[in-house]
Amino acid sequence: MTTQPNNLDQWFHHYADRASGLAASEVRALFAVASRPEVVSLAGGMPYVSALPQDLITESIDRVMRDRGPAALQYGSGQGLPALREQILEVMALEGIRASVDDVVVTTGSQHALELVTKLFINPEDVVIAEGPSYVTAMVVFKSFQAEITHVEMDDFGLVPDSLRAHIASVRTAGKTIKFLYTVPTFSNPAGVTLSWQRRLEVLEICRENGILVLEDNPYGLLYFDGPPPHAMRSVEEDGVIYLGTFSKTLAPGFRVGWVLAPHAIREKLILANEAAILSPSSFTQSIISEYMSVADWKGQIDTFRGVYRERRDAMLDALDDYLPDLQWTVPNGGFYIWVTLPDNLDSKSMLPRAVKELVAYTPGTAFFADGNGRNNMRLSFCYPTPDFIREGIRRLSTVINGEIELLNTFSQTAPLTIAPPAPSMINPPANLS
Amino acid sequence: MTTQPNNLDQWFHHYADRASGLAASEVRALFAVASRPEVVSLAGGMPYVSALPQDLITESIDRVMRDRGPAALQYGSGQGLPALREQILEVMALEGIRASVDDVVVTTGSQHALELVTKLFINPEDVVIAEGPSYVTAMVVFKSFQAEITHVEMDDFGLVPDSLRAHIASVRTAGKTIKFLYTVPTFSNPAGVTLSWQRRLEVLEICRENGILVLEDNPYGLLYFDGPPPHAMRSVEEDGVIYLGTFSKTLAPGFRVGWVLAPHAIREKLILANEAAILSPSSFTQSIISEYMSVADWKGQIDTFRGVYRERRDAMLDALDDYLPDLQWTVPNGGFYIWVTLPDNLDSKSMLPRAVKELVAYTPGTAFFADGNGRNNMRLSFCYPTPDFIREGIRRLSTVINGEIELLNTFSQTAPLTIAPPAPSMINPPANLS
């Protein structure tokens, strides 16, 4: 049991098995460089908080401190502030959800809800079904609890029900246990697509038939551009859906306040898991949000955000049309992201250092797959930079991509690289899932 | 794989094995009743935040919003705000700790540091050694990752090194793996005792020899009454100690800001685990604390807290002397808690409903043992009620305890219940650990 004191990490043999799932992202170091101000970052998912009414937030804080300072500075309930949970019902009602305030649990961002749900359900080798591509840090959580992730195919209308059926059958044939389907059905991160209403019903039916929980993650649903998306899956199915929401995208991520709405028995266990992990979510930031929602026109503020992000999405689509007309990309009706498909021979990860040298950053597609797919994809975020910077970023990106294509053509002179005809709103399904 | 829709919890068979460790405390429902204002609660661990300079906190918040609002409202680094980590070094220096700012990770209260460390190290059936009695919600975390907890004996000078040696030997003889020693060496929760300097060195030496990590949890160290306690264990041993600190007791728990100081390689993994769990700790509350520490006399404020809690401790000790002179209790030099030993035949848990009926609450001793011990112990908190309420609470408690003793004597008339001679500063070691 003694350790070698001269090892780089003398506690190396002490870690739990699950710790091997916690590896630093390959592009992490590069993103540190990419955060320099001269780089146009199309990589992150930071909301544009400068569009918030900061005076109103400051006023709300002052009122909380004046009227109920000691309560806001104290420990709270593990389930979260009752007044805020009531207001969360109003937020969810906008997406067709009717629920009891008793079934809402406030979490430290919806990220922590992902962690708590995973801790509660996943044994090593249990299977989580997720869209391909899927939200990267959800997959980090699943892997940190030793889940196996299998990706279902997506197209312009979200995850493909037939692919879901096929995956369920093949996972079960392999003798494995499926614990839940993880989905971002509306304005998906990273694909930007939305699951159609018909498919929502079909996916719910498949999961009901197969006794599979649905983990519906909906950070972007209220940030639509051209008209509201279909109602949440939770609006039609109460017992089989765990629903995650957050104030990080419609208000501010610095507060770290999200929530989970879960069937009764699961909710009870989530409160216990929340208390074990953090005792109680921050009374202080919950009180501020609750006060802000009482006095501010918060729906109007979300509408302001819609306008900001709509303009940025349009700027990105225009710039892609102008500078990279031969590529394929998705056209989102909301959210933060566009998913771009490069020519087959291009590798977005190996191209990234050159992009950063040209002062533009993006997220390589492989980050959003657990199985190595996405090599010729990238996620572009339009949420944070202003329209001018977005345009300039895409211009820089086009010089990088065109340079890569030229380089590849030089090295394969007999057969010049061909680019598929543009199909701007199609996700390129990974070969092994089609 | 289909579920029975009429079960109380149709997902009952879907939970992970570890979920069985997440059970609601038996006294939880009672504590809900005990939070009524007419009940004197000697049960909780809530700091007296009303002693804080609220105007100064409000000013700090306003300055943060004015000077760097968008940064405070945004996502931050998974490791925490660099400026705050520098200030955390100043806090730890007061207890003899020298460290690099690179090795500090900010967490959502030190509770979340406990969760992250446990997630990182504990496989099912791994052993955690803890003092008996030990902090209840640390044990909840260990159990939620399926650790086995074994308790070492304590006395007035903290955990007993010979008992630690004996436990290490017997656990290893049983073929089990010890992952760490969890200890609250200073003003222990719940025992109120402090590990002597000589024993700190001895415990560190035992753990070094046996390749066992020390998880030093120190929420109360700066809240001393009669003179500073020995320096932190981390002050003499860098590679073998993971140190946990928090602003919850010296400032306010509503911010949910604590930290972990860990050896280099472990720290790197803790950042990854923190990012998976919550993306980043709250930029907003970190910024407020950092601003407050820049402008306020925070050391003077901690001294104010010392005065408040010293007066309350004295009130509780005086009341115990006056109303319950035949019991045994510890005499803490800091922190929040006194540990009381009742006559052998009394059961503090079964007595609690009667206490709440008499409008006083405490925490039964069994909550602080993983093995059913502590039946005739209780933890009394003096942190929150004012001295007058503390005195009234102890008076009410004395009527409950004396009523119990009378009742027991009535039913065992041949041999009246005897009370051990008072030894006010001795912990009563559970029989199986002596």
From TrEMBL, chains A, B:
Any matching Pfam family: Aminotran_1_2
Residue ranges of every copy of the Aminotransferase class I/classII large domain listed in the record: 54-397
Domain of life per record: Bacteria
Keywords: Aminotransferase, Pyridoxal phosphate, Transferase
GO-annotated molecular function: transaminase activity
Requisite cofactors: pyridoxal 5'-phosphate
PANTHER family for this protein: AMINOTRANSFERASE, KYNURENINE_ALPHA-AMINOADIPATE AMINOTRANSFERASE, MITOCHONDRIAL
Protein name as catalogued: PLP-dependent aminotransferase family protein
